[in-house]
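Section 5.1 Outputs to date
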Amino acid sequence: GETIPVDGGVDFTFREPLGVVGLITPWNFPMNIASWKLGPALACGNTVVLKPAEITPLTAMRLAELALEVGIPEGVLNVVVGPGSVVGKALVEHPDVAKIAFTGSTEVGRSIMKGAAGTIKRVTLELGGKSANVIFADADLDKAASSAPIAVFGNAGQDCCARSRILVEASVFDSFVDRLIDATKKITVGDPESDDTDMGPLVSEQQRDTVASYVDGQTAWQGDAPSGRGYWFPPTILAPVSNDDRVAREEVFGPVVAVIPFQDEAEAIRLANDTPYGLSGSVWSKDGAKALRVTRRITSGVISINSNTSVRVSTPFGGFKQSGFGRELGMHALDSYSEIKNVYMSTEA
């Protein structure tokens, strides 16, 4: 809490728990995201109902078992499994649940906001993204190109922070694309349990079909993927692409990247912001002043300069626009799982 100078007395604040918090987590990083929601929720004194994605419930169930083993009292962390249309809906609409923290698609996020309105429930939403990786001509092109593949093809592109739009200054566009292709050829697609693998399969046949629908005649390069068991899709580079194309407008959630040319700084900013999303992004330039200037003008919640990182446990994470609101991770996460109570005590006789 805080102590605030006031006339005639003393004023101070307390942070108090919300009560019962509902955590709804996705299938793409089931353990990681459940953990970073649970930490601040429990630290603030709340009890938790954790609802994992229907197709990835096992890590959440094991997490609950471990919580009991380390001494968290029974009933503090509860896991319920099942379809979102049933279990998730019940959590969102239940009058005794004080808050919902959701990570998933923007479409489902909208429905959660509507459902939470009935009880004026607090909501934190971490939703979709279409993040831009902005490469200026004065950047270290070798480093930018070698770093770009894992930023979009990691987890087979099933990542809300994936830099699935690469904006490249026109004067170095062809040179960068050549470097990007060379770097992507080093990505090993295979068994995710192997230490030698960089990229595994997609989550489902439906997801593979959706990803395939974004690939058309703009293909500059497409790699290889295993055949047989698994929903495989090869890393794919589309270039040059217009920012008006479907692949540049929608969240693909797969290993497909759109490379888009720009002429100058103003156009780079305009293209980066020409999306309903605003989750993450990167700016590459050796000119620190320009990089900071562009970063301030890009409407995204998490941006890296000369790097493609987004998530650290010690720093706030969350989006602008239709990528959601509220922050997770870092000390800012505590704001989302507690209420502030202000107390004034008169010292006047």
